[in-house]
Amino acid sequence: MTRLASSFWVQAYLTRLRLADIPAFVTAHGDDTAGAVLVKLNTLDGRARAFQRSFDLTSGARVWVVLAEGEDAAVEAAVARQRSFDPDLWVIEVEDRAGRHLLGEEGLE
To answer: What is the number of structural domains in the chain?
Structure first.
């Protein structure tokens, strides 16, 4: 299966979020071609979750898993740790009180 360039996926994701009226921002611009993407969901109540892509060993599929969850400062620290050893990492911050991030939608999963 051909992989999309990271910058193309990020732009498509931001467009999907914009169409759903969900604010999102690129807070770290990673490698345009092959940078991994981390999505931080801020629910604007002091809590957050960070998602990263992982391989499901049973199916071989790529799935979104929770990297960190809890107080916003703790999740931000986890994101900073990831960035410290992966300078090519993209970080997208999504802000939605209802917790919507659209990562489970077709084409984004």
So the answer is: 1
pTM for the whole structure:
0.90
Q: Which residues pair with 26 in a beta bridge?
A: 92
In a domain, 105, yes or no: no
Whether 108 is covered by a domain: the verdict is: no
Question: In which domain, by residue range, is 81 found?
Answer: 6-95
pLDDT 10s digits, 39-86: 999 999 999 999 998 877 777 777 889 999 999 999 999 999 999 999
40: left (phi over 0), alpha (psi -120 to 50) or beta: beta
